[in-house]
Amino acid sequence: QVQLVESGGGLVQAGASLRLSCVASGRTISRTAMGWFRQAPGNEREFVAAISWSSASTHYADSVKGRFTISRDNAKDTVYLQMNSLKPEDTAVYYCAQDPGNAGSYNVRTAQSVYEYWGQGTQVTVSS
Fold first, then answer.
1. How many C-alpha atoms does 96 have within 13 Å on its Cβ side?
2. DSSP code of 55?
3. Residue 76 banded pLDDT, cuts 50, 70, 90
4. Angle at Cα 3 formed by Cα 46 and Cα 58, nearest 5°?
5. How many CA atoms within 13 Å lie on the side-chain side of 114?
6. Judging by DSSP bridges, how do beta strands 78-83 and 117-118 pair with one another?
């Protein structure tokens, strides 16, 4: 079973940047797709971005497209989310998750139900 630990969150002003990291342990994530999700207070958890095992494919929610970039370093079993031009509406707890069901695929999936392993989350707060 894989354990995921996110870090890099914090309190920033609108327009600033943050880079979130998600480090895996227990089992390698190098052959599986990974995703980032977020949950704002009072809202449902939502998809943010996903990346295939080889980084060949990525997918973003419309709300973050052009501002956020997902990447990974398989040698370090780490996934990143670079967040630029942050807005107050980006305030949320950010979670990384593993989709083990399509190991080796070049496709990425956005449905939360296929992500089996989740981190504990890291808080991102963007002030106006």
1. 30
2. S
3. very high
4. 45
5. 17
6. unpaired
Give pLDDT tens digits for 101-121: 878 888 999 999 999 999 999
- Helices (H) and strands (E) counted in the chain, each on its own, are 0, 11
In 40-76, which positions are buried (b, 16+ CB within 10 angstroms) versus exposed (e)?
eeeeebebbbbbbbeeeeebbbeebeeebbbebebee
Tell me the CA distances in angstroms from 20 to 9, 104, 107, one per residue in order: 6, 24, 23
Total residue length of the chain: 128
Secondary structure E strands in the chain: 3-7, 10-13, 18-25, 33-39, 46-51, 58-60, 68-73, 78-83, 92-99, 117-118, 122-127
